[in-house]
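Structure (tokenized):
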């Protein structure tokens, strides 16, 4: 089979590899679509994300879906021909966090495309049955590949305890900001404001259903939000940009007794965060690391057309063009939101 191997930062080669052999509890999945994630781009451009360093050639890609072509002898819930979305973290199942249901915090997780583990930019992958989620009729594998980022948005909304009647601000309208917007809207929250520096992303946010969007280069976001909320602020502030500036803004935007959720990971520590103001408002500060126990609900929401996750896709590249896709994403950040790789081309 073919695999896209990042030989070094900035260089990807299509190489031949042996077909994987499945274990008794695994299925063989022919990968059809893989989303290009910000973490993939970071590894491609810089060779590292924080403490995770690429020290040898690696296959990137973790937002994947495809068709089951073979099943292990102990597999009971899937069969040949099923379309599935792959949840990319294989956890130990034995640690404190796995046993209490917070498996996204498992310290022993084998997460696709996180060094030293290879990812999903391959023609075929052997994967555990319990981490492959069957897609319902009418749902395709482009949507299946996008369940992974959508799960992050669902988890952010869960952490915020979002409910009908709330007001919210989403800081950042990249892929994760937009799926967070979708998740809030799906919960019946109509008053969602979105900010970003890139106009294309703000246009997408408007198309999806943001009540109003703001570009910080053109307006003072804090003043605008305060004017719209009678100087009270919003119930929920979700930071998805991973920027020190937007992280600091969260405490100014949140209402007394409201909720702040940090999703984006800033490259460097955030200094001068106003904890005094946070305490005076008795606002809750929460965080997101990936997701847990969310794939079934996210798939159901997409399958039932509650969420049109394809709205975030701006570009599709073939597998044979994968290095071109990475370079395009890095050089054209203002012209793209979400790139998906068609593994059959």
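Design, position by position:
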């Amino acid at each position: 089979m073919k695999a896209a191997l990042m030989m070094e930062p900035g260089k990807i080669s299509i190489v031949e590899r042996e077909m994987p052999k499945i274990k008794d509890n695994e299925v063989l999945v022919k990968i059809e679509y893989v989303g290009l994630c910000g973490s993939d781009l970071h590894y491609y451009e810089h060779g590292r994300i924080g403490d995770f360093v690429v020290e040898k050639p690696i296959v990137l890609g973790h937002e994947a879906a495809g068709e089951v072509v073979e099943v292990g002898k102990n597999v009971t819930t899937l069969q040949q021909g099923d379309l599935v979305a792959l949840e990319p973290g294989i956890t130990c199942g034995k640690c404190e966090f796995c046993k209490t249901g917070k498996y996204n915090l498992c310290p022993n997780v084998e997460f696709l495309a996180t060094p030293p583990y290879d990812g999903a930019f391959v023609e075929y992958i052997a994967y555990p049955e319990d981490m492959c989620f069957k897609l319902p009729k009418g749902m395709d594998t482009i949507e299946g590949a996008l369940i992974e980022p959508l799960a992050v948005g669902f988890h952010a909304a869960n952490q915020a305890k979002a409910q009908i009647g709330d007001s919210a601000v989403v800081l950042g309208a990249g892929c994760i900001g937009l799926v967070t917007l979708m998740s809030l809207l799906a919960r019946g929250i109509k008053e969602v404001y979105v900010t970003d520096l890139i106009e294309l992303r703000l246009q997408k946010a408007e198309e999806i259903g943001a009540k109003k969007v703001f570009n910080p280069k053109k307006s003072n976001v804090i003043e605008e939000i305060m004017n719209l909320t009678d100087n009270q602020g919003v119930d929920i502030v979700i930071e998805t940009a991973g920027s020190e500036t937007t992280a600091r803004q969260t405490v100014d935007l949140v209402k007394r007794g409201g909720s702040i959720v940090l999703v984006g990971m800033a490259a460097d520590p955030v200094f001068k965060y106003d904890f005094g103001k946070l305490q005076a408002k008795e606002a809750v500060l929460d965080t997101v690391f990936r997701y847990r126990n969310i794939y079934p609900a996210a798939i159901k929401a997409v399958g039932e057309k509650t969420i049109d996750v394809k709205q975030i896709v701006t570009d599709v590249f073939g597998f044979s063009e994968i290095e071109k896709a990475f370079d395009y994403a890095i050089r054209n950040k203002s012209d793209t939101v979400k790139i998906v790789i068609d593994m059959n081309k």
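Reviewer-requested clarification: The longest strand covers residues 26-36. The chain has two domains: 2-145+308-342, 153-287.
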